[in-house]
Amino acid sequence: MKNILTIIFIGIIGICLASDGKYQKVMSKNIAQLYEAKSVEDYQKVINALDRIALAEEGKWEPHYYGAFGNIMMSTKVQTIAEKDQHLDAAQSRLDKAAALQAQNVEVITLQGFIHMMRLSVDPASRGQQYAGIAFASFNKAVAMDSLNPRALIMRAQMKQGTAKFFGTSTDEACGEAAKALAIFDEQDKAVASIAPKWGRGSAESMMKQCSQLNE
After folding, report:
1. pLDDT value at position 127?
2. What is the largest CA-CA distance in the chain?
C-alpha cells in the first residue's frame, strides 16, 4: 500500500512539474512578444493571450501583472487623455488581480507606482497633487522591500528628476539613482528567472543620457 501511494504521489508531482513547465514556456513566449510590441494592436493581441492564460492558471499572478504592464504601454501609444485613462484603468484592474494574489510582491508594488506616475504624466499641472505623493509612496515602499530592484529604483529616479525639474533644483540625486539602477540591470539581466520582470533598462539608459547631457 505504501509503495502504491508513493507511486501516485510521484505521478502527481510529475504532472504538476509538466504543467508548470508548459506555463513557463507559454508565458516566456508572450512576455517576449509583449516587450517587442510596437503598436496598440500588438499589445492588445498579447494582453488577450495573457487573459486566457490567467483564466487557465487562476493562482498565477504573472499573467495579470504583464497584462497590466501591456495596458500601461498602450497608454503611451494613444493621444487623447480619455484614451490614456481608459488604458490605465484597464491596467489598474488587471494589477488589482495580481495584487490579490501577491500583495507584498515588490514588482506588483512597483508597477502600481508606475500606473500612478503615468496618470500624473497625462496632465501634470492638474494631477500633480493627486498622484505624485502616491507614486513616490509606492516606489519608496518597493525600494525599502528590495533596494536592489532596478525597476523600483529607475521609476523613483524618474519621479525625482521630474520633481527637481519642476522646482528648478538639482537632479544629481535622481541621476545617481538612475546610475545605480543601470548598474544593477547590468548585473541582473542574465541572472533573473525566465518569466521574471526585466523591463526598465531602456528607461535607465535614456535617463543616464539626459544626465550626461546636463553635465556637459
Report:
1. 95
2. 77
Q: What is the pLDDT of residues 44-71, one digit of tens each?
A: 999 999 999 999 999 999 999 999 999 9
Instruction: Name the grid cell of 26.
Output: 507559454
| Residue written as grid cell 506616475 | 117
Write the CB contacts of 61 (distance below 8 Å, at least 6 apart in sequence): 97, 98, 101, 102, 105, 108
Q: What digits encode the pLDDT tens for the residues 92-132?
A: 999 999 999 999 999 999 999 999 999 999 999 999 999 99
Please compute, for residue 196, the number of CA atoms within 13 A of its CA located in the half-sphere on the CB side: 13
Report the candidate in 163, 159, 173, 73 with the shortest Cα–Cα distance to residue 117: 159
Give residue for cell 521574471: 196
pTM higher than 0.85: yes
* One-letter identity of residue 18: A
Whole-angstrom Cα distance, residue 61 to residue 103? 10
Q: Specify whether the CB–CB gap between 79 and 69 falls below 8 A.
A: no
Angle of helix 40-56 relative to helix 2-36, nearest 10 degrees? 170
Nearest to 65 by CA among 42, 82, 47: 47
